[in-house]
Protein 1
Amino acid sequence: MDVLIAHGGASHREDLRKIVEKYAFNAIEEENALNAVIKAVMLMEDDPEFNAGTGSNMRVDGSIQMDAAVMVPGDFGAVINIEYVKNPVLVARDVMLRSPHMILAGDGALKFARKLGYEYYDPSTEEAIKRRERVLQKLKNGEIPSYYHPQFLAEFLGDTVGAVARINGEFAAAVSTGGTSLTLRGRVGDSPIIGAGIYCGKKGAVVATGIGEEIMRRMLSFRIYNRIGEKCLEEICREEIEKFGDIPVGVIAISDEDVCAISNRSMPYAIVKTQR
Ligand code: GLY
């Protein structure tokens, strides 16, 4: 049985679940796990409703800097703070498959992408511009006392998109994000950090979503991966998420026998299965 789980971000609109499901069904048709998770993430990057690729959040200074990563057992590729490309997840894949490196950042990532033929693309949308304006207005009014303020999180997080899959017994994971609106240029979240926002090995695959700083602090994806086999995946993920208290977080995870999608906020997700 092949399985793919996709999510559209913690603290994101529950009504996007049907769309995530459509993309997941489309993606599981791919011939292997890596292509399947990349396809699921690409479809969400291309949909401006999600905070990745087109529709990504803007930083306080108005720039859009995107993070993405892919992982299979024994290999990893990521881009950090890449600008002006359509699909960061594809560049992350090419860092893994076509460069001697694991992570490329900033202008180096962009130069690498251009060398491979990725064309200039502006991922900004009217909606993202309005979101940033609302953040700036609230900052001006002193209405956002903290990065962790529940109102800010509910209104502006939108967060990451991601997918994990097991196809023909092989695992893969992919993730992509525009980060959060209330951040400085240059800020890096959990998504492109191996073991924090993403992990994949012989036992399974895990992808996280939520406040990147807190996910990194806890090495959430590796922590869950490391516990695979200890008890049922749902229980493991629930225990790890409970440690975040009220801080928004979600994970999707898959092992040989088990699947799990869980968040302490609304999180549109889909678990799709197929028998080849
Ligand atoms: N979870 C995405 C980020 O914090 O950037």
Protein 2
Amino acid sequence: MKIILITGFEPFGGERVNPSGALLDHLPETVAGAALCKLLLPVSYRKSADLLLERIDVLQPNALVMLGQAGGRGKITPECIAINLNHSESVDNAGEQRINARIHPEAPAAYFATLPIDAMLQAMRACGVPCAMSVSAGAFVCNHVSFEALHHISSKGYGIPAGFIHLPYLPEQAEEKPGTPAMPLSMMEQGVCAALTAVAASIHA
Ligand code: PCA
């Protein structure tokens, strides 16, 4: 059976919930004949990548789909690129701030995601879920994890398709932020399942 490793994050930045972590609990055990192996990551530069890379090594999944929250966006946004940079005014959940810091000085400036993004967008649109490709995951912990995973997979020659998808706020998060878009968890679930179906169709067990 094909295995898709899917990750989400804990809440951060004073929020009580992270849609990506909440979604992990709602996704089914299998999608289109692929088993979903779920992993919740801490919002920490230091801890998140170690946990994820170890799981990739042990599990050797057929694909890796990473999820995170992008507050303020109104659509589900697969990221097409991860950059070799940590740079954010925000501190992570371990209290760490990183400014203009290369992740791996010897590594390429960026990696393109290797998921079938066009097919994922088409599948989400087909079920009416607002979505668009994003060209920047920022330079905080989501981009960090995405870059670390793509660099690891490339360096080890694993050939595992991998990429990141950012999710909007949940309605309860947007309530206290007037004018901020949100998406119900049920719609996120529908969209991410459709995207995962496209991923499953593109991989071989
Ligand atoms: N979003 C943050 C980190 C964790 C998350 O869910 C980001 O976009 O970097």
